[in-house]
Amino acid sequence: MEILHSAVAILAAIVLIIRFKIDPVISLLVACVYLGLATEQGADGTVGAITGGFGEIMAEVGLLIGFGVLIGALLHSMGTFRDLVDLLARRVGRKLPYAMTAALSTIFPSIYVDVQVVLAAPMAKESAAAVDRRHGLPWLAGAMGIGIFSGYVFVVPGLAAVSVAGLMDVPLGTYLLYGLPIGLLTALLTTFLFRLLLGRGLWSEDSDLDADAAARREDTAEADDVPYADRAARLPLGVRLLPILVPLVLIAAAAIVDVAGDLPAVLAFLGDANIALFLGLLIAVAMVRPGLGADGTGQVLTAGFRTTGEILLVTGVGGSLGAVIGGSGLEDTLADLFSADEGAPVVLSVLLAWCIAAVLHFAIGSVSVAAITAAGIIAPVVGSLGVDPVVIALAIASGAMFALHVNSNFFWMFTTLLDLSTKGSLKTLTLATSLGAVVSLPLVLLAGLVAAAT
């Protein structure tokens, strides 16, 4: 019954938001209350899961969102994104979605997915019209989504990649050897196929953009008369990008050194995502303040704070739904439903691993938790399957991307940061990750042939 009630709760939230135009926070809380009571968690247990899930997500990403949005506001005041888009338009032009998804899937997997979307979203919004006046934003949104999660599950040191490799006892070097080309090809092919779908009338600005949210932010900026930092804008573009580049380098260095061996305490501190982004914020403030002064800088930050509050609330409630689903006992039910058959053909074993991870992700709403849970189910019998463990690990990674939707806190971060409606995010993030999971499956099967031949 946990599966049925979870499905009802998820579908109810989607219908309330899309069909009846009820605010996502209210809709998600209705789904939380229904699911908690229907799965016999009781009144206290349901409230505890809602508040605990909210608090847990805020502990993980609250500061990241706040610092990231404020950095974005300060960079915008320096004209950084505008100048960066102009540069990219000259260098790659309409190929920007491919460049973005390739970079996200191969260069930045050591960066937390929450940090990636917070820092990439402003550039995507700024460059959308230059890429394609009609389909630029949805195309870049889909490219962002699949790029981030292809790297997350396939490329070491992405968190899901490292976790699955460890549970399946696959050396990280071996996993990277197979996972890196699969992750890159998945991101590029999915971005191409997604653009074809957009060309067939998939996107509608009237229903897929959250015009009200965008208008509120524009009104706030106008009301506050947010100033422009002309003096800072005269700095070289590379210098103005330091508030983004410094955190990325620190986080990546800490992740890579941690995988390679002992992590020095100083690097562990500076490479923590919260500390690294805070340093980026300090750098941004130091650049803007000489040109705007204390009052002007305060106005820019105030506009950023207002945007941050909206994002934090809807992201936290998304975490609440995930916590209530977790407390329903759904993971144990799914583990009992699936069992790996010893001696099964290679194709069947790969498909089974893919399906376990896909169903877990759709139900739980966390790519990493779905991948880790699926690996925990299959790892005890992987030796008897007659398939190289790296292939099963890659199949789990592939399936764990499937259908990222409303029970994921990342979904709501993505939605609010890109000014999309819920329907718009379902058409971009959910569709792109689902398409990526399907696109990567034959690549995993091909990897199985290569592994068997070596």
Automatic annotation (TrEMBL):
The keyword Transmembrane helix applies. The keyword Membrane applies. Pfam families: GntP_permease. The chain crosses the membrane at residues 6-37, 57-78, 98-124, 136-155, 175-198, 241-260, 266-288, 309-330, 350-378, 390-412, 432-453. InterPro entries: Glcn_transporter. Keywords: Membrane, Transmembrane, Transmembrane helix. PANTHER family: BLL7963 PROTEIN, GNT FAMILY GLUCONATE TRANSPORTER. This is SLC13 family permease. It comes from Nocardioides oceani. The lineage of its organism: Bacteria, Bacillati, Actinomycetota, Actinomycetes, Propionibacteriales.
